[in-house]
Protein backbone atom coordinates (compact mmCIF):
# COMPACT_ATOMS: atom_id res chain seq x y z
CA UNK A 1 0.00 0.00 0.00
CA UNK A 2 1.06 3.58 -0.69
CA UNK A 3 0.98 6.25 1.97
CA UNK A 4 -2.30 7.56 0.49
CA UNK A 5 -4.09 4.17 0.36
CA UNK A 6 -6.49 3.48 3.21
CA UNK A 7 -8.36 0.37 4.34
CA UNK A 8 -12.04 0.06 5.23
CA UNK A 9 -11.52 1.01 8.90
CA UNK A 10 -9.49 4.10 8.02
CA UNK A 11 -12.15 5.01 5.43
CA UNK A 12 -14.85 5.25 8.10
CA UNK A 13 -12.56 7.17 10.47
CA UNK A 14 -11.81 9.78 7.79
CA UNK A 15 -15.52 10.10 6.97
CA UNK A 16 -16.13 11.06 10.61
CA UNK A 17 -13.39 13.70 10.25
CA UNK A 18 -15.27 15.38 7.41
CA UNK A 19 -13.69 13.83 4.33
CA UNK A 20 -15.79 13.87 1.13
CA UNK A 21 -16.11 10.67 -0.89
CA UNK A 22 -15.61 11.10 -4.64
CA UNK A 23 -16.82 8.23 -6.84
CA UNK A 24 -14.89 8.33 -10.14
CA UNK A 25 -16.91 5.62 -11.90
CA UNK A 26 -19.04 6.28 -14.98
CA UNK A 27 -22.55 7.57 -14.41
CA UNK A 28 -24.86 4.64 -13.70
CA UNK A 29 -22.05 2.21 -12.94
CA UNK A 30 -23.27 1.95 -9.35
CA UNK A 31 -26.54 0.47 -10.60
CA UNK A 32 -24.73 -2.04 -12.84
CA UNK A 33 -22.48 -3.29 -10.02
CA UNK A 34 -24.84 -2.77 -7.10
CA UNK A 35 -21.98 -1.04 -5.27
CA UNK A 36 -22.17 2.46 -3.91
CA UNK A 37 -21.47 4.70 -0.96
CA UNK A 38 -24.59 6.77 -0.36
CA UNK A 39 -22.89 10.05 0.58
CA UNK A 40 -20.50 10.15 -2.38
CA UNK A 41 -20.23 12.64 -5.22
CA UNK A 42 -20.04 11.09 -8.69
CA UNK A 43 -17.36 12.80 -10.81
CA UNK A 44 -16.32 10.33 -13.54
CA UNK A 45 -12.72 9.62 -14.48
CA UNK A 46 -10.87 11.17 -16.35
CA UNK A 47 -12.90 14.41 -16.01
CA UNK A 48 -12.20 14.48 -12.29
CA UNK A 49 -8.52 14.92 -13.16
CA UNK A 50 -8.97 17.38 -16.03
CA UNK A 51 -11.17 19.63 -13.88
CA UNK A 52 -9.31 19.22 -10.57
CA UNK A 53 -8.48 22.89 -10.05
CA UNK A 54 -12.01 23.94 -11.00
CA UNK A 55 -13.73 21.30 -8.83
CA UNK A 56 -11.43 21.64 -5.83
CA UNK A 57 -9.66 25.02 -5.85
CA UNK A 58 -8.69 24.53 -2.19
CA UNK A 59 -5.70 22.18 -2.28
CA UNK A 60 -6.35 21.29 1.37
CA UNK A 61 -9.73 19.76 0.51
CA UNK A 62 -10.25 16.44 2.34
CA UNK A 63 -11.09 13.76 -0.25
CA UNK A 64 -11.39 9.98 -0.44
CA UNK A 65 -11.48 8.69 -4.01
CA UNK A 66 -13.38 5.45 -4.74
CA UNK A 67 -14.27 3.18 -7.67
CA UNK A 68 -15.05 -0.55 -8.00
CA UNK A 69 -11.62 -2.08 -7.34
CA UNK A 70 -9.30 0.88 -6.79
CA UNK A 71 -7.71 1.25 -10.24
CA UNK A 72 -9.28 4.49 -11.47
CA UNK A 73 -9.47 5.89 -7.98
CA UNK A 74 -5.82 5.02 -7.38
CA UNK A 75 -4.77 6.87 -10.54
CA UNK A 76 -6.91 9.83 -9.54
CA UNK A 77 -5.53 10.01 -5.98
CA UNK A 78 -1.95 9.66 -7.21
CA UNK A 79 -2.47 12.46 -9.74
CA UNK A 80 -4.08 14.73 -7.16
CA UNK A 81 -1.20 14.11 -4.77
CA UNK A 82 1.27 15.01 -7.54
CA UNK A 83 -0.75 18.20 -8.14
CA UNK A 84 -0.23 19.22 -4.52
CA UNK A 85 -3.37 17.95 -2.75
CA UNK A 86 -2.00 16.48 0.52
CA UNK A 87 -5.34 15.29 1.96
CA UNK A 88 -6.42 12.92 -0.81
CA UNK A 89 -6.73 9.19 -0.15
CA UNK A 90 -7.90 6.14 -2.06
CA UNK A 91 -9.89 3.22 -0.67
CA UNK A 92 -7.60 0.23 -1.20
CA UNK A 93 -9.54 -2.51 -2.98
CA UNK A 94 -12.34 -0.13 -3.92
CA UNK A 95 -16.01 -0.37 -3.09
CA UNK A 96 -15.85 -4.17 -3.26
CA UNK A 97 -13.89 -4.04 0.00
CA UNK A 98 -16.72 -2.17 1.73
CA UNK A 99 -19.10 -5.09 1.22
Question: Any key phrases for this structure?
Answer:
transferase, Rhodanese-like_dom, Sulfurtransferase, transferase activity, 5 strands, alpha/beta, Rhodanese-like_dom_sf, Oxidized Rhodanese, domain 1
Question: How would you describe this structure to a colleague?
Answer:
- This protein is an alpha/beta fold and 99 residues long.
- It has a single domain (5-34, 47-98), classed as 3-Layer(aba) Sandwich (Oxidized Rhodanese, domain 1).
- 34% of the residues lie in helices and 17% in strands.
- The chain is built from 5 helices and 5 strands; from the N terminus they run βαβαβααβαβ.
- It has a 5-stranded parallel beta sheet.
- β4 (63-66), α5 (71-82) and β5 (88-91) form a beta-alpha-beta unit.
- It is globular, with a radius of gyration of 12 Å.
Distance between the termini: 20 Å
Q: Using the coordinates above, name the CATH class.
A: Alpha Beta
- Total number of β-strand segments? 5
Judging from the principal axes of the Cα atoms, what is the shape? globular
CATH topology: Oxidized Rhodanese, domain 1
Oligomer: single chain
On the 0 to 100 scale, the average pLDDT is: 95
Secondary-structure class: alpha/beta
Radius of gyration: 12 Å
Keywords: Transferase
Pfam family, one: Rhodanese
Protein name: Sulfurtransferase
Domain Rhodanese: 15-99
Amino acid sequence: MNNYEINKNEFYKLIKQGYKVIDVRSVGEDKMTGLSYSDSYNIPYPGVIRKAKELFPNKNEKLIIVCNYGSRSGLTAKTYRQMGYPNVYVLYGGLYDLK
